[in-house]
Amino acid sequence: MGEKVLMxxxxxxxxxxxxAGCRHYFGYPITPQTEVAAYMSKRMPKIGGTFLQAESEIAxxxxxxxVAATGKRVMTSSxxxxxxxxxxxISYLAGCDLPALVVNVERGGPGLGxxxxxxxxxxQATKAGGHGDYxxxxxxxxxxxxxxxxxxxxxxxxxKYSMVTxxxxxGTMGQMMEPVEIDDIEIKTVEKPWALTGTGMARSHNxxxxxxxxxxxxxxxxFERYEKYAQIEKSEVMYEEYMMDDADICLVAFGITAxxxxxxxxxxxxxGIKVGLLRPITLWPFPSQALAARASQCKAFISVEMNMGQxxxxxxxxxxxxxxxxxxxxxxxxxxxxxxxxxxxxxxSGGAD
Amino acid sequence: xxNSVKRVTLFAGHYGSGKTNCAINYALHLRSSGLPVxxxxxxxVNPYFRTVDSMAELVSAGIRVVASDYAASNVxxxxxxGEMYSLFEDKSSYAVIDLGGDDRGALALxxxxxxxxxxxxxxxxxxxxxxxxxxxxxxxxxEVMEEISSAAGIPFTGIVNNSNLGxxxxxxxxxxxxxxxxxxxxxxxxxxxxxxxxxxxxxxxALDIPLFGLSLQKKVFExx
Lengths: 353, 224
Hints:
The complex is a heterodimer of chains A (353) and B (224).
Chain A: E1 5-8, H1 9-19, E2 24-27, H2 34-43, E3 50-53, H3 57-69, E4 74-78, H4 80-85, H5 87-96, E5 100-106, H6 122-126, E6 137-139, H7 144-161, E7 164-170, H8 171-175, E8 177-180, H9 215-235, E9 239-242, E10 249-252, H10 256-270, E11 275-280, E12 282-284, H11 288-295, E13 300-305, H12 311-318, E14 325-329, H13 338-349
Parallel strand pairs in A: 2-3, 2-4, 4-5, 5-7, 6-7, 10-11, 10-13, 13-14
Antiparallel strand pairs in A: 1-8, 6-12, 9-11
Chain B: E1 8-13, H1 19-32, E2 37-42, H2 55-60, E3 64-66, H3 86-89, E4 94-99, H4 102-107, H5 110-119, E5 122-128, H6 138-152, E6 158-161, H7 171-188, E7 192-198, E8 211-214
Parallel strand pairs in B: 1-4, 1-5, 2-3, 2-4, 5-6, 6-7, 7-8
Helix pairs in contact in B: 6-7
Protein backbone atom coordinates (compact mmCIF):
# COMPACT_ATOMS: atom_id res chain seq x y z
CA MET A 1 0.00 0.00 0.00
CA GLY A 2 2.63 2.50 1.12
CA GLU A 3 -0.19 4.98 1.64
CA LYS A 4 -2.48 5.57 4.58
CA VAL A 5 -5.90 3.94 4.56
CA LEU A 6 -8.71 3.98 7.11
CA MET A 7 -9.22 0.56 8.63
CA UNK A 8 -10.94 -1.20 11.45
CA UNK A 9 -8.59 -3.13 13.71
CA UNK A 10 -10.16 -6.38 12.53
CA UNK A 11 -9.52 -5.49 8.88
CA UNK A 12 -5.92 -4.51 9.66
CA UNK A 13 -5.33 -7.98 11.11
CA UNK A 14 -6.77 -9.61 7.99
CA UNK A 15 -4.83 -7.43 5.52
CA UNK A 16 -1.58 -7.83 7.49
CA UNK A 17 -2.04 -11.61 7.54
CA UNK A 18 -2.35 -11.58 3.75
CA UNK A 19 0.79 -9.43 3.48
CA ALA A 20 2.54 -11.96 5.74
CA GLY A 21 1.80 -14.68 3.23
CA CYS A 22 -1.18 -16.28 4.95
CA ARG A 23 -3.40 -17.82 2.28
CA HIS A 24 -5.54 -20.04 4.51
CA TYR A 25 -8.18 -18.66 6.85
CA PHE A 26 -10.77 -20.74 8.69
CA GLY A 27 -13.34 -19.15 10.95
CA TYR A 28 -16.84 -18.79 12.17
CA PRO A 29 -18.59 -15.43 12.67
CA ILE A 30 -18.90 -13.89 16.11
CA THR A 31 -19.17 -10.28 17.23
CA PRO A 32 -16.92 -8.31 17.67
CA GLN A 33 -14.38 -10.00 15.33
CA THR A 34 -16.58 -10.72 12.32
CA GLU A 35 -14.81 -8.19 10.06
CA VAL A 36 -11.69 -10.39 10.08
CA ALA A 37 -13.71 -13.11 8.37
CA ALA A 38 -15.69 -10.65 6.22
CA TYR A 39 -12.47 -9.08 4.92
CA MET A 40 -10.90 -12.47 4.24
CA SER A 41 -14.01 -13.59 2.37
CA LYS A 42 -13.62 -10.63 0.00
CA ARG A 43 -9.84 -10.77 -0.45
CA MET A 44 -8.84 -14.46 -0.38
CA PRO A 45 -10.72 -15.51 -3.55
CA LYS A 46 -9.03 -12.66 -5.46
CA ILE A 47 -5.49 -13.77 -4.53
CA GLY A 48 -5.86 -17.53 -4.87
CA GLY A 49 -6.21 -18.08 -1.14
CA THR A 50 -8.72 -20.06 0.89
CA PHE A 51 -11.44 -18.49 2.98
CA LEU A 52 -13.61 -21.07 4.59
CA GLN A 53 -16.47 -20.47 6.99
CA ALA A 54 -16.45 -23.70 8.93
CA GLU A 55 -19.50 -25.29 10.51
CA SER A 56 -18.20 -24.41 13.96
CA GLU A 57 -15.22 -22.94 15.80
CA ILE A 58 -14.07 -26.47 16.61
CA ALA A 59 -14.09 -27.42 12.94
CA UNK A 60 -12.19 -24.23 12.07
CA UNK A 61 -9.34 -24.88 14.53
CA UNK A 62 -9.03 -28.47 13.30
CA UNK A 63 -8.73 -27.16 9.72
CA UNK A 64 -5.96 -24.90 11.04
CA UNK A 65 -4.16 -27.97 12.41
CA UNK A 66 -4.39 -29.60 9.00
CA VAL A 67 -2.90 -26.69 7.08
CA ALA A 68 -0.29 -25.99 9.77
CA ALA A 69 0.91 -29.59 9.39
CA THR A 70 1.70 -28.87 5.73
CA GLY A 71 3.92 -25.95 6.76
CA LYS A 72 1.74 -23.20 5.27
CA ARG A 73 0.91 -20.02 7.16
CA VAL A 74 -2.61 -20.35 8.52
CA MET A 75 -4.89 -18.52 10.91
CA THR A 76 -8.24 -18.45 12.61
CA SER A 77 -9.99 -15.72 14.56
CA SER A 78 -12.87 -15.55 16.98
CA UNK A 79 -14.07 -13.84 20.13
CA UNK A 80 -14.07 -15.15 23.70
CA UNK A 81 -16.80 -17.86 23.63
CA UNK A 82 -15.48 -19.09 20.28
CA UNK A 83 -11.91 -19.14 21.57
CA UNK A 84 -13.05 -21.36 24.45
CA UNK A 85 -14.35 -23.81 21.86
CA UNK A 86 -10.99 -23.77 20.07
CA UNK A 87 -8.96 -24.68 23.16
CA UNK A 88 -8.81 -28.40 22.42
CA UNK A 89 -7.35 -27.67 19.00
CA ILE A 90 -4.89 -25.14 20.41
CA SER A 91 -3.64 -27.77 22.89
CA TYR A 92 -3.23 -30.22 19.98
CA LEU A 93 -1.29 -27.58 18.01
CA ALA A 94 0.98 -27.19 21.07
CA GLY A 95 1.32 -30.98 21.41
CA CYS A 96 2.25 -31.27 17.72
CA ASP A 97 4.57 -28.22 17.87
CA LEU A 98 2.75 -26.60 14.94
CA PRO A 99 2.84 -22.88 14.09
CA ALA A 100 -0.43 -20.98 13.66
CA LEU A 101 -1.93 -17.58 14.38
CA VAL A 102 -5.04 -17.43 16.56
CA VAL A 103 -6.80 -14.09 17.04
CA ASN A 104 -9.05 -13.39 20.03
CA VAL A 105 -11.02 -10.12 19.87
CA GLU A 106 -12.35 -10.38 23.40
CA ARG A 107 -15.87 -9.65 24.62
CA GLY A 108 -17.40 -9.78 28.09
CA GLY A 109 -17.86 -13.13 29.84
CA PRO A 110 -18.15 -15.70 31.26
CA GLY A 111 -20.58 -17.74 29.17
CA LEU A 112 -22.14 -15.89 26.28
CA GLY A 113 -21.52 -12.74 28.32
CA UNK A 114 -21.97 -9.80 25.99
CA UNK A 115 -20.65 -8.31 22.79
CA UNK A 116 -18.92 -5.28 24.29
CA UNK A 117 -15.13 -5.19 24.79
CA UNK A 118 -13.27 -6.94 27.59
CA UNK A 119 -9.85 -8.28 28.59
CA UNK A 120 -11.16 -11.12 30.69
CA UNK A 121 -9.44 -13.88 28.69
CA UNK A 122 -5.98 -12.87 29.95
CA UNK A 123 -5.63 -15.98 32.10
CA GLN A 124 -6.95 -18.24 29.35
CA ALA A 125 -4.51 -16.76 26.83
CA THR A 126 -1.38 -16.59 28.98
CA LYS A 127 -1.74 -19.65 31.21
CA ALA A 128 -2.65 -22.12 28.41
CA GLY A 129 -6.40 -22.32 27.98
CA GLY A 130 -6.42 -25.95 26.97
CA HIS A 131 -5.12 -29.07 28.72
CA GLY A 132 -1.48 -29.94 29.24
CA ASP A 133 1.73 -28.04 29.90
CA TYR A 134 2.18 -25.44 27.21
CA UNK A 135 2.33 -21.76 26.36
CA UNK A 136 1.20 -19.63 23.46
CA UNK A 137 3.08 -16.48 22.56
CA UNK A 138 0.52 -13.76 23.31
CA UNK A 139 0.68 -10.32 21.67
CA UNK A 140 -1.44 -7.36 22.82
CA UNK A 141 -1.85 -4.54 20.27
CA UNK A 142 -2.92 -1.05 21.38
CA UNK A 143 -3.65 0.60 18.02
CA UNK A 144 -4.91 -0.35 14.59
CA UNK A 145 -1.37 0.09 13.25
CA UNK A 146 -0.11 -2.30 15.90
CA UNK A 147 -2.87 -4.79 15.08
CA UNK A 148 -1.23 -5.01 11.64
CA UNK A 149 2.39 -4.99 12.86
CA UNK A 150 1.83 -7.65 15.53
CA UNK A 151 -0.07 -9.89 13.10
CA UNK A 152 3.01 -9.96 10.86
CA UNK A 153 5.29 -10.41 13.89
CA UNK A 154 2.93 -13.13 15.15
CA UNK A 155 3.38 -15.24 12.03
CA UNK A 156 7.16 -14.81 12.22
CA UNK A 157 7.29 -15.87 15.88
CA UNK A 158 4.96 -18.81 15.28
CA UNK A 159 7.22 -20.08 12.48
CA LYS A 160 10.44 -19.36 14.36
CA TYR A 161 9.39 -21.37 17.42
CA SER A 162 6.89 -23.71 15.75
CA MET A 163 4.05 -22.86 18.12
CA VAL A 164 0.81 -20.90 18.37
CA THR A 165 0.93 -17.12 18.56
CA UNK A 166 -2.23 -15.47 19.80
CA UNK A 167 -3.25 -11.89 19.14
CA UNK A 168 -5.18 -10.85 22.25
CA UNK A 169 -7.21 -7.79 21.34
CA UNK A 170 -10.58 -6.56 22.59
CA GLY A 171 -13.80 -5.44 20.92
CA THR A 172 -12.72 -1.81 20.90
CA MET A 173 -9.41 -2.58 19.19
CA GLY A 174 -11.24 -4.71 16.64
CA GLN A 175 -13.96 -2.17 15.87
CA MET A 176 -12.17 1.17 16.10
CA MET A 177 -11.09 2.81 12.85
CA GLU A 178 -7.73 4.54 12.51
CA PRO A 179 -5.47 5.53 9.63
CA VAL A 180 -2.97 2.77 9.04
CA GLU A 181 -0.12 2.06 6.67
CA ILE A 182 0.52 -1.55 5.73
CA ASP A 183 3.52 -1.90 3.48
CA ASP A 184 4.43 -4.89 1.39
CA ILE A 185 6.88 -6.82 3.49
CA GLU A 186 9.59 -9.29 2.77
CA ILE A 187 8.19 -12.55 4.05
CA LYS A 188 10.62 -14.23 6.42
CA THR A 189 10.22 -17.95 5.85
CA VAL A 190 11.83 -20.70 7.86
CA GLU A 191 12.66 -24.22 6.79
CA LYS A 192 10.02 -26.72 7.89
CA PRO A 193 11.57 -30.12 7.25
CA TRP A 194 8.85 -31.73 9.40
CA ALA A 195 6.01 -30.53 7.13
CA LEU A 196 3.70 -32.99 5.44
CA THR A 197 4.38 -32.13 1.82
CA GLY A 198 4.64 -35.55 0.25
CA THR A 199 7.82 -37.66 0.35
CA GLY A 200 8.35 -37.52 -3.39
CA MET A 201 9.79 -41.00 -2.79
CA ALA A 202 12.91 -39.14 -1.65
CA ARG A 203 12.57 -39.26 2.11
CA SER A 204 10.85 -41.23 4.85
CA HIS A 205 7.37 -40.23 6.00
CA ASN A 206 6.95 -37.23 8.29
CA UNK A 207 4.54 -37.75 11.14
CA UNK A 208 2.74 -34.93 12.94
CA UNK A 209 1.22 -36.23 16.13
CA UNK A 210 0.62 -35.32 19.77
CA UNK A 211 0.14 -38.86 21.07
CA UNK A 212 3.06 -40.49 22.89
CA UNK A 213 2.58 -44.10 23.98
CA UNK A 214 5.69 -44.09 26.17
CA UNK A 215 5.58 -41.78 29.20
CA UNK A 216 9.34 -41.23 29.26
CA UNK A 217 9.23 -39.94 25.67
CA UNK A 218 6.31 -37.64 26.48
CA UNK A 219 8.22 -36.35 29.50
CA UNK A 220 11.26 -35.71 27.32
CA UNK A 221 9.08 -33.86 24.77
CA UNK A 222 7.70 -31.61 27.55
CA PHE A 223 11.23 -30.89 28.83
CA GLU A 224 12.35 -29.91 25.33
CA ARG A 225 9.33 -27.69 24.83
CA TYR A 226 10.05 -25.85 28.08
CA GLU A 227 13.67 -25.29 27.02
CA LYS A 228 12.22 -23.55 23.98
CA TYR A 229 9.89 -21.50 26.21
CA ALA A 230 12.87 -20.45 28.36
CA GLN A 231 14.62 -19.22 25.21
CA ILE A 232 11.51 -17.21 24.23
CA GLU A 233 11.28 -15.68 27.71
CA LYS A 234 14.90 -14.59 27.32
CA SER A 235 14.74 -13.12 23.81
CA GLU A 236 11.20 -12.20 22.74
CA VAL A 237 9.82 -9.95 25.50
CA MET A 238 8.31 -6.71 24.14
CA TYR A 239 7.01 -3.76 26.14
CA GLU A 240 6.70 0.00 26.00
CA GLU A 241 7.64 2.37 28.82
CA TYR A 242 5.94 5.76 28.91
CA MET A 243 7.02 8.58 31.23
CA MET A 244 8.75 6.10 33.52
CA ASP A 245 12.05 7.97 34.04
CA ASP A 246 10.95 9.81 37.18
CA ALA A 247 7.78 7.86 37.99
CA ASP A 248 6.84 7.15 41.60
CA ILE A 249 3.79 5.16 40.54
CA CYS A 250 3.82 2.65 37.69
CA LEU A 251 0.62 1.88 35.81
CA VAL A 252 0.60 -1.49 34.06
CA ALA A 253 -1.89 -1.83 31.23
CA PHE A 254 -2.14 -3.42 27.79
CA GLY A 255 -4.32 -2.84 24.73
CA ILE A 256 -7.09 -0.25 24.97
CA THR A 257 -6.63 0.32 28.71
CA ALA A 258 -3.02 1.42 28.04
CA UNK A 259 -4.41 4.24 25.92
CA UNK A 260 -6.83 5.22 28.66
CA UNK A 261 -3.91 5.07 31.12
CA UNK A 262 -1.84 7.49 28.99
CA UNK A 263 -4.66 10.05 29.15
CA UNK A 264 -4.87 9.63 32.92
CA UNK A 265 -1.09 10.05 33.21
CA UNK A 266 -1.27 13.41 31.41
CA UNK A 267 -3.93 14.59 33.85
CA UNK A 268 -2.08 13.24 36.92
CA UNK A 269 1.19 14.87 35.85
CA UNK A 270 -0.66 18.17 35.45
CA UNK A 271 -1.49 17.77 39.14
CA GLY A 272 2.15 17.08 39.97
CA ILE A 273 1.89 13.32 40.47
CA LYS A 274 4.83 11.47 38.94
CA VAL A 275 3.25 8.50 37.24
CA GLY A 276 4.25 6.43 34.24
CA LEU A 277 3.12 3.38 32.29
CA LEU A 278 4.66 0.05 31.52
CA ARG A 279 2.69 -1.49 28.67
CA PRO A 280 3.34 -5.19 28.06
CA ILE A 281 3.19 -5.90 24.30
CA THR A 282 3.97 -9.56 24.85
CA LEU A 283 1.66 -10.88 27.59
CA TRP A 284 3.52 -14.18 27.35
CA PRO A 285 6.45 -13.89 27.72
CA PHE A 286 5.53 -11.28 30.35
CA PRO A 287 7.95 -8.35 30.86
CA SER A 288 8.73 -9.47 34.41
CA GLN A 289 12.32 -8.25 34.46
CA ALA A 290 11.36 -4.78 33.25
CA LEU A 291 8.77 -4.52 36.03
CA ALA A 292 11.21 -5.88 38.63
CA ALA A 293 13.71 -3.21 37.56
CA ARG A 294 11.12 -0.52 38.32
CA ALA A 295 10.26 -1.91 41.76
CA SER A 296 13.21 -0.16 43.40
CA GLN A 297 12.13 3.18 41.94
CA CYS A 298 8.32 3.06 42.22
CA LYS A 299 6.48 3.00 45.52
CA ALA A 300 3.35 1.41 44.05
CA PHE A 301 1.95 -0.29 40.96
CA ILE A 302 -1.57 -0.04 39.56
CA SER A 303 -2.81 -2.72 37.18
CA VAL A 304 -5.47 -1.24 34.87
CA GLU A 305 -7.56 -4.03 33.36
CA MET A 306 -10.96 -4.80 31.87
CA ASN A 307 -11.44 -7.90 34.01
CA MET A 308 -11.72 -8.74 37.71
CA GLY A 309 -7.93 -8.60 38.14
CA GLN A 310 -5.95 -11.16 36.12
CA UNK A 311 -2.70 -9.58 34.92
CA UNK A 312 -2.29 -8.16 38.43
CA UNK A 313 -1.07 -11.62 39.53
CA UNK A 314 1.77 -11.48 37.02
CA UNK A 315 2.67 -7.97 38.17
CA UNK A 316 2.86 -9.15 41.79
CA UNK A 317 4.99 -12.14 40.79
CA UNK A 318 7.27 -9.97 38.65
CA UNK A 319 8.10 -7.67 41.57
CA UNK A 320 7.97 -10.49 44.17
CA UNK A 321 5.28 -8.50 46.02
CA UNK A 322 7.97 -6.01 47.05
CA UNK A 323 5.57 -3.08 46.48
CA UNK A 324 1.80 -2.80 46.82
CA UNK A 325 -0.08 -3.54 43.59
CA UNK A 326 -3.54 -2.02 43.22
CA UNK A 327 -6.29 -2.84 40.75
CA UNK A 328 -8.23 -0.32 38.68
CA UNK A 329 -10.82 -2.16 36.62
CA UNK A 330 -14.15 -2.24 34.83
CA UNK A 331 -15.78 -5.40 33.50
CA UNK A 332 -18.73 -6.69 31.51
CA UNK A 333 -18.02 -4.57 28.44
CA UNK A 334 -17.32 -1.33 30.29
CA UNK A 335 -14.11 0.63 29.61
CA UNK A 336 -12.45 2.50 32.50
CA UNK A 337 -12.50 6.25 31.90
CA UNK A 338 -9.34 8.36 32.25
CA UNK A 339 -11.06 10.00 35.25
CA UNK A 340 -11.52 6.66 36.99
CA UNK A 341 -7.85 5.82 36.45
CA UNK A 342 -6.89 9.32 37.64
CA UNK A 343 -8.95 8.88 40.83
CA UNK A 344 -7.11 5.64 41.53
CA UNK A 345 -3.73 7.32 40.93
CA UNK A 346 -4.69 10.15 43.32
CA UNK A 347 -5.84 7.77 46.03
CA UNK A 348 -2.70 5.60 45.71
CA SER A 349 -0.45 8.68 45.78
CA GLY A 350 -2.17 9.84 48.95
CA GLY A 351 -3.68 12.88 47.27
CA ALA A 352 -2.32 15.46 44.83
CA ASP A 353 0.93 17.22 45.81
CA UNK B 1 -25.51 20.11 -1.53
CA UNK B 2 -27.27 19.39 -4.79
CA ASN B 3 -30.14 17.02 -5.52
CA SER B 4 -33.46 18.21 -4.22
CA VAL B 5 -34.56 16.97 -0.83
CA LYS B 6 -36.88 13.98 -0.92
CA ARG B 7 -39.16 12.76 1.82
CA VAL B 8 -37.13 9.59 2.35
CA THR B 9 -33.31 9.61 2.23
CA LEU B 10 -31.38 6.36 2.44
CA PHE B 11 -27.65 6.10 3.20
CA ALA B 12 -26.07 2.81 2.15
CA GLY B 13 -22.53 1.64 1.51
CA HIS B 14 -19.65 -0.57 2.54
CA TYR B 15 -19.41 -1.08 6.30
CA GLY B 16 -17.22 1.56 7.86
CA SER B 17 -17.87 3.99 4.97
CA GLY B 18 -19.41 6.48 7.40
CA LYS B 19 -23.11 5.91 6.63
CA THR B 20 -24.20 6.51 10.20
CA ASN B 21 -22.20 9.71 10.51
CA CYS B 22 -23.57 11.02 7.19
CA ALA B 23 -27.15 10.05 8.07
CA ILE B 24 -27.00 11.74 11.48
CA ASN B 25 -25.53 14.95 10.10
CA TYR B 26 -27.97 14.97 7.19
CA ALA B 27 -30.89 14.59 9.61
CA LEU B 28 -29.56 17.48 11.71
CA HIS B 29 -29.21 19.54 8.51
CA LEU B 30 -32.84 18.90 7.48
CA ARG B 31 -34.03 19.65 11.01
CA SER B 32 -32.09 22.92 11.12
CA SER B 33 -33.98 24.05 8.01
CA GLY B 34 -37.16 23.63 10.02
CA LEU B 35 -38.41 20.32 8.64
CA PRO B 36 -39.92 17.59 10.79
CA VAL B 37 -37.40 14.72 10.73
CA UNK B 38 -37.19 11.13 11.91
CA UNK B 39 -34.02 9.03 11.69
CA UNK B 40 -34.03 5.25 11.60
CA UNK B 41 -31.21 2.88 12.37
CA UNK B 42 -31.71 -0.13 10.10
CA UNK B 43 -28.23 -1.45 10.81
CA UNK B 44 -28.59 -5.11 11.67
CA VAL B 45 -24.92 -5.77 10.91
CA ASN B 46 -22.75 -3.72 13.25
CA PRO B 47 -23.79 -3.74 16.90
CA TYR B 48 -20.98 -1.40 17.96
CA PHE B 49 -21.32 2.09 16.46
CA ARG B 50 -24.96 3.00 16.10
CA THR B 51 -27.29 5.91 15.53
CA VAL B 52 -28.49 5.52 19.11
CA ASP B 53 -25.00 6.45 20.32
CA SER B 54 -25.99 10.00 19.30
CA MET B 55 -29.51 9.69 20.73
CA ALA B 56 -29.15 12.63 23.13
CA GLU B 57 -27.95 15.07 20.45
CA LEU B 58 -30.64 13.97 18.01
CA VAL B 59 -33.50 14.10 20.48
CA SER B 60 -32.48 17.50 21.78
CA ALA B 61 -32.48 18.76 18.17
CA GLY B 62 -36.10 17.60 17.92
CA ILE B 63 -35.44 14.56 15.74
CA ARG B 64 -37.39 11.35 16.32
CA VAL B 65 -35.08 8.30 16.58
CA VAL B 66 -36.34 4.88 15.57
CA ALA B 67 -34.04 2.00 16.47
CA SER B 68 -34.11 -1.55 17.69
CA ASP B 69 -34.62 -1.92 21.42
CA TYR B 70 -31.47 -4.03 21.32
CA ALA B 71 -29.18 -1.46 19.65
CA ALA B 72 -26.22 -0.53 21.86
CA SER B 73 -27.14 -3.24 24.30
CA ASN B 74 -25.25 -6.42 25.01
CA VAL B 75 -27.58 -8.41 22.78
CA UNK B 76 -26.42 -9.21 19.26
CA UNK B 77 -29.92 -9.53 17.88
CA UNK B 78 -30.79 -8.31 14.37
CA UNK B 79 -34.31 -7.08 15.16
CA UNK B 80 -36.25 -4.21 13.61
CA UNK B 81 -38.97 -2.49 15.63
CA GLY B 82 -42.56 -2.31 14.41
CA GLU B 83 -42.31 1.45 14.77
CA MET B 84 -40.18 1.41 11.60
CA TYR B 85 -43.39 1.26 9.51
CA SER B 86 -44.43 4.67 10.82
CA LEU B 87 -41.63 6.24 8.74
CA PHE B 88 -43.32 5.09 5.56
CA GLU B 89 -46.94 5.49 6.63
CA ASP B 90 -46.71 8.92 8.25
CA LYS B 91 -45.80 11.08 5.26
CA SER B 92 -45.87 14.35 7.21
CA SER B 93 -42.31 13.79 8.45
CA TYR B 94 -39.02 13.48 6.55
CA ALA B 95 -37.23 10.18 7.06
CA VAL B 96 -33.48 9.58 7.06
CA ILE B 97 -32.52 5.91 7.04
CA ASP B 98 -29.15 4.51 8.01
CA LEU B 99 -28.67 1.09 6.43
CA GLY B 100 -26.29 -1.60 7.63
CA GLY B 101 -23.07 -2.32 5.79
CA ASP B 102 -22.81 -4.00 2.40
CA ASP B 103 -25.45 -6.20 0.78
CA ARG B 104 -26.29 -7.96 4.01
CA GLY B 105 -27.16 -4.69 5.71
CA ALA B 106 -29.23 -3.58 2.72
CA LEU B 107 -31.25 -6.79 2.83
CA ALA B 108 -33.08 -5.47 5.90
CA LEU B 109 -34.65 -2.81 3.69
CA UNK B 110 -36.51 -5.47 1.72
CA UNK B 111 -39.67 -5.41 3.81
CA UNK B 112 -40.08 -1.64 3.29
CA UNK B 113 -38.99 -1.59 -0.36
CA UNK B 114 -42.45 -1.67 -1.91
CA UNK B 115 -43.65 1.18 0.32
CA UNK B 116 -40.66 3.32 -0.69
CA UNK B 117 -40.98 2.57 -4.41
CA UNK B 118 -44.74 3.11 -4.38
CA UNK B 119 -44.45 6.54 -2.73
CA UNK B 120 -41.56 7.33 -5.11
CA UNK B 121 -40.24 10.30 -3.15
CA UNK B 122 -36.81 9.04 -2.11
CA UNK B 123 -33.09 9.49 -2.53
CA UNK B 124 -30.82 6.49 -2.13
CA UNK B 125 -27.23 7.60 -1.56
CA UNK B 126 -24.16 5.41 -1.89
CA UNK B 127 -21.57 6.49 0.68
CA UNK B 128 -18.00 5.95 -0.54
CA UNK B 129 -14.56 6.46 1.02
CA UNK B 130 -11.41 6.34 -1.11
CA UNK B 131 -9.36 5.57 1.98
CA UNK B 132 -11.19 2.34 2.84
CA UNK B 133 -9.28 -0.58 1.26
CA UNK B 134 -12.35 -2.44 -0.04
CA UNK B 135 -13.75 0.69 -1.75
CA UNK B 136 -10.40 2.24 -2.66
CA UNK B 137 -10.96 2.14 -6.43
CA UNK B 138 -13.97 3.05 -8.59
CA UNK B 139 -14.17 -0.59 -9.75
CA UNK B 140 -14.42 -1.81 -6.15
CA UNK B 141 -17.15 0.80 -5.49
CA UNK B 142 -19.11 -0.52 -8.45
CA GLU B 143 -18.90 -4.05 -7.01
CA VAL B 144 -20.24 -2.88 -3.64
CA MET B 145 -22.89 -0.74 -5.33
CA GLU B 146 -24.23 -3.62 -7.41
CA GLU B 147 -24.27 -5.99 -4.43
CA ILE B 148 -26.18 -3.48 -2.32
CA SER B 149 -28.72 -2.39 -4.91
CA SER B 150 -29.57 -5.97 -5.83
CA ALA B 151 -30.03 -6.84 -2.13
CA ALA B 152 -32.06 -3.70 -1.39
CA GLY B 153 -34.09 -3.76 -4.60
CA ILE B 154 -33.94 0.04 -4.77
CA PRO B 155 -31.82 1.92 -7.31
CA PHE B 156 -29.21 4.42 -6.15
CA THR B 157 -29.85 8.08 -6.99
CA GLY B 158 -26.58 9.70 -5.95
CA ILE B 159 -23.12 9.40 -4.46
CA VAL B 160 -21.89 10.81 -1.16
CA ASN B 161 -18.11 11.19 -1.26
CA ASN B 162 -17.22 10.65 2.39
CA SER B 163 -13.51 10.05 1.75
CA ASN B 164 -11.64 10.55 5.03
CA LEU B 165 -8.85 9.27 7.24
CA GLY B 166 -10.70 9.89 10.47
CA UNK B 167 -9.31 12.58 12.73
CA UNK B 168 -6.14 12.77 10.59
CA UNK B 169 -8.02 13.92 7.46
CA UNK B 170 -6.46 16.95 5.76
CA UNK B 171 -7.96 19.19 3.10
CA UNK B 172 -5.47 17.67 0.67
CA UNK B 173 -6.87 14.19 1.40
CA UNK B 174 -10.31 15.45 0.44
CA UNK B 175 -9.03 17.14 -2.73
CA UNK B 176 -7.25 13.93 -3.72
CA UNK B 177 -10.55 12.03 -3.47
CA UNK B 178 -12.35 14.19 -6.04
CA UNK B 179 -11.07 12.44 -9.21
CA UNK B 180 -12.00 9.10 -7.57
CA UNK B 181 -15.52 10.29 -6.78
CA UNK B 182 -15.88 11.63 -10.32
CA UNK B 183 -14.78 8.29 -11.75
CA UNK B 184 -17.38 6.47 -9.64
CA UNK B 185 -19.92 9.00 -10.84
CA UNK B 186 -19.14 8.48 -14.51
CA UNK B 187 -19.00 4.68 -14.21
CA UNK B 188 -22.34 4.56 -12.38
CA UNK B 189 -24.07 7.45 -14.14
CA UNK B 190 -25.00 8.86 -10.73
CA UNK B 191 -24.40 12.46 -9.64
CA UNK B 192 -22.06 13.29 -6.74
CA UNK B 193 -24.52 14.76 -4.29
CA UNK B 194 -21.96 15.97 -1.80
CA UNK B 195 -18.40 15.70 -0.59
CA UNK B 196 -18.24 15.68 3.18
CA UNK B 197 -15.67 17.25 5.47
CA UNK B 198 -15.38 17.69 9.19
CA UNK B 199 -16.54 21.23 9.77
CA UNK B 200 -13.60 21.78 12.14
CA UNK B 201 -11.42 21.55 9.01
CA UNK B 202 -10.49 24.75 7.20
CA UNK B 203 -11.73 24.72 3.62
CA UNK B 204 -8.65 25.63 1.58
CA UNK B 205 -9.99 25.80 -1.92
CA ALA B 206 -13.02 25.70 -4.14
CA LEU B 207 -14.26 22.36 -5.40
CA ASP B 208 -16.68 21.88 -8.27
CA ILE B 209 -18.63 19.46 -6.05
CA PRO B 210 -21.06 20.59 -3.34
CA LEU B 211 -19.56 20.39 0.15
CA PHE B 212 -21.36 19.15 3.23
CA GLY B 213 -19.92 19.91 6.65
CA LEU B 214 -20.18 17.23 9.33
CA SER B 215 -20.55 18.73 12.77
CA LEU B 216 -21.17 15.61 14.83
CA GLN B 217 -18.39 13.02 14.97
CA LYS B 218 -18.57 9.92 17.08
CA LYS B 219 -15.43 8.44 18.59
CA VAL B 220 -14.82 5.20 20.43
CA PHE B 221 -13.57 7.13 23.41
CA GLU B 222 -12.17 10.59 23.83
CA UNK B 223 -8.42 10.90 23.42
CA UNK B 224 -6.09 13.84 23.43
